[in-house]
Design goal:
This protein is α/β, with parallel strands linked by helices. The chain is built from 18 helices and 20 strands. The chain has a six-stranded mixed β-sheet. Helix 10 crosses helix 11 and helix 11 packs parallel to helix 12. The relative contact order is 0.12.
Length: 514
Amino acid sequence: MMRKTIWGVNVGTHDSSIASVITNDIENELVFAAHSERSSRIKNYKFLTNKVVQQALDISGVPDRIVYYERDLWKRARQLWAGQYKTAFTKPTISSLIPLKESMSWSDRFITHFLDGIPTNSMAHHYSHAAAGYYTSPYRDAAVLVIDSIGEWETLTIWKGEGKKLKRVYSQGFPDSVGLWYSAMTQRIGLKPNEDEYILMGWAALGDPDKYKKKIFDDFFHGLHPDSPKIKFKHNLHRGCKWWAPELDSVQDYADIAAGTQAVYEYVFKHLVKQAKRLVDSDNLVVMGGCALNCVANSIAYEMYDSNVWIMPNPGDAGSSLGAILGYQQDFIDWQGPYLGYNIPGAYPVNEAVNELYHTTGIVGIANGRAEFGPRALGNRSLLADPRGKDVKDKVNTVKRRQEFRPFAPVILEEHANEYFDGPTGPYMQYTSKCKHPEQFPAIAHLDNTSRVQTVNKDQHIGLYNLLTKWKEATGCPMLLNTSLNIKGEPMVDTEEDAQRWQKEYGVTVLTKD
């Protein structure tokens, strides 16, 4: 039986990553996937680090093949067209860190093999997104909707997944980009584009969506056609839109702009989901690309497809290191969950965590097991707190150096989710639901009484399940506040050393084992 190790790589743009799959004639096993930012300690780090490469080597050994997540020359052509001359002529930075087997050369193993697997006339970036979603999904047929800022040229694609094949049925290119527009609006209200879009989404709850919704749509969009996915913009927004409506400069204006932007995005997103359903005859939908992190909009897709929706927990560019492998192989993988990164060994700290939460401070950090592959902490690099106290939200926001309006997510025993929330839930914090008792749980209910719910069962995460079970036995409450173990602008804690430093600097106990 032939055994091979294949690495997928995303590097040279924001949020670089490595994934590793071991494959044989029968099955593909995903053994490692991690973000470079966690080991570099620099948010959205765009290069590989010696540490993350060594982590992959320790688990899977020297790769037999490396595949890249996009077509480098096509991307550079677009950068030249857009006037990004310095970026276009920057040398690749990947080869020096990754060891090669002596019998293989870069020309033999890098990029060209991946390109052989791309459907005719398609570009690798969006294909990587589509492959990461479809080939990790439980479906064997699906419409695949990919929305992001920009790949090589593509900004929006729709794919038909059938059996092991992905066929692109629609493509839209630069500069018309829903993702670039959302990032431009993020910049317009004083936030950092390509990083703070989730803050705009949270800020939207403080504003009036009707105040500027029509103005935003009319000023930026050419309108939507009922029989076309085409989203045509009136401006090239690659460099932002600080010039737009300069008279709107108060804090409340910014909240209203955020609310209007989110409302317009949901309107456009609903249109695109309808178009995916029209173009692809399937009862299943896969949503990928950076825009798939908009959990408020994702709930629309969940309802429209009667819950038959899959969003890989790392749908943005970092997840494309895995997508590159799966797109190259054109084969499914048995998705076991997102706990794929650096490992902190030891039993999950159930008893100590409950003691800290119930008898001591009401807040505790946990850094245990394999780090999450994706932007959201799901129990292994988490900051947990009692969701019931009126001052808990302010306390946690103070620790994390975040804006006071920022919401927190609940993690709840799966069997109790419907008792406390009305709407879609799931194990990866991908949708929003209405909290039925926001007055009882002020720390996890946003200003509009919504929550981004994470459910837990025994199969998904036995340690976190046991912690929540003991917490319920002690308090009668089946949920906790769950947020990432970091502060604003800093990557999540990765290693034991990170955990010790975090505990010392921010005065919160961080447990690494029971």
